[in-house]
Amino acid sequence: LYFEHLDRFLQVFEGKQIKCLLYDDLQASPREFMQEVYSHIGVDPSFEPELIEKKYHTRKARPRFQNVYNTLVKCSKWVSGLGRGAAKVVQFVRAKGWVDLFHRLNRGADFPELSPQKKQDLAAYYQNDVKRLSRLLDRELHNKWLHPYIEKNKN
């Protein structure tokens, strides 16, 4: 639960040391989101990485061959940790588009949609936490995150 974890951090750190951002904001406006991050950590907010518009992991499907996928991820991390030369191998593989090709070939079935009842149960479970987080962040989150799921099934 977000509020509980955030509240623990706020008990230890000053409020100005913590910047709480929402994934919704990153999706809506990546540039402004990153400018907020940069400003908070002392980086020039005008800095703009080359890949600001690139979308990663946007598919909602399971890998067809999960074990192969997990092994390749581990190998990539291992090779990247070997040093600069080895990390260049991983960059080369990515630049050639082989990673994207693998993801296309390894696409499995889409994740199943949650049932309306499961959505309603989850919304009820998180409702109090979302209200507390809304107050803490001074942002209205209930209507966006929970209202559609609670109200649809009351009839």
Strand order in space, largest sheet: 1-2
**Percent in strands:** under 5%
Structural class: mainly alpha
Shape: globular
Query: Count the helices. How many?
Result: 9
Unreliable spans:
none
Described by strand count, sense and barrel closure, the largest sheet is: 2 strands, antiparallel
Kindly state the mean pLDDT as a whole number? 84
Number of strands: 2
Measure the end-to-end span.
Answer: 28 Å
**What share of residues is helical?**
55-70%
**Alpha carbon gyration radius:** 20 Å
Succession of helices and strands = HHHEHHHEHHH
By oligomeric state, this entry counts as single chain
Description:
With 155 residues, the chain is mainly alpha-helical. The chain has 9 helices and 2 strands. It is globular. The model has no long low-confidence stretch (mean pLDDT 84).
List the helices and strands and how they pair.
Elements: H1 2-12, H2 23-28, H3 30-41, E1 61-63, H4 66-80, H5 84-95, H6 98-105, E2 107-110, H7 116-137, H8 142-145, H9 147-152
Antiparallel strand pairs: 1-2
Nutshell version of this structure?
The chain has 155 residues and is mainly alpha-helical. Helix content is 62%, strand content 5%. It has nine helices and two strands.
Key words describing this protein structure:
about 160 residues, mainly alpha, 9 helices, 2 strands
